[in-house]
């Protein structure tokens, strides 16, 4: 404010009354405060927007991780079934009809589960993925 008063005095060379000086100071201070307030408001708004974007990215990442974990679980279960059929084929030299039926049932189950994952209502809710895992005991 001191710099403002000095500049005002030299620009106007003291040709103003005390009341004119006060009015000029009030107007200048009001404009300066308004500009600073707007700048701070815009700055905090940008920070809030970035925070929301980061939270959204984190939620998407958690959803992706839960989805990938669930798909990995389903595929690993299927691969374990295929390995059992392979072991049977290596031991007996052929695959039994029951093993083929079990393989077909597992293929259908994997297809059904993958479709269910694609149709989840709220994939951000990790509890929706719990139906794909055996219950904890």
Detailed description of the structure:
- It is built from three helices and no strands.
- The protein has 137 residues and is mainly α.
- α2 runs antiparallel to α3.
- The mean pLDDT is 87.
- It has one domain.
- Helices cover 79% and strands 0% of the residues.
Count of separate DSSP helical elements: 3
Number of domains: 1
Which structural class matches the secondary elements? mainly alpha
Net shape: rod-shaped
* Average of per-residue pLDDT values: 87
Q: What characteristics describe this protein?
A:
rod-shaped, 137 residues, mainly alpha
Topology:
Elements: H1 2-12, H2 18-92, H3 97-118
Helix pairs in contact: 2-3
Quick overview:
By secondary structure, the chain is mainly α.
């Amino acid at each position: 404010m001191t710099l403002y008063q000095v500049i005002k005095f030299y620009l106007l060379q003291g040709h103003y009354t005390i009341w004119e000086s006060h009015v000029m100071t009030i107007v200048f201070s009001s404009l300066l405060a308004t500009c600073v307030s707007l700048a701070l408001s815009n700055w905090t708004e940008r920070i809030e927007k970035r925070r929301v974007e980061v939270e959204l990215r984190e939620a998407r990442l958690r959803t992706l991780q839960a989805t990938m974990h669930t798909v990995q679980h389903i595929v690993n279960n299927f691969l374990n079934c295929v390995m059992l059929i392979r072991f049977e084929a290596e031991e007996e030299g052929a695959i039994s009809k029951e093993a083929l039926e079990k393989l077909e049932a597992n293929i259908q189950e994997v297809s059904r589960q993958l479709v269910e994952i694609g149709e989840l209502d709220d994939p951000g809710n990790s509890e929706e993925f719990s139906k794909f895992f055996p219950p904890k005991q």
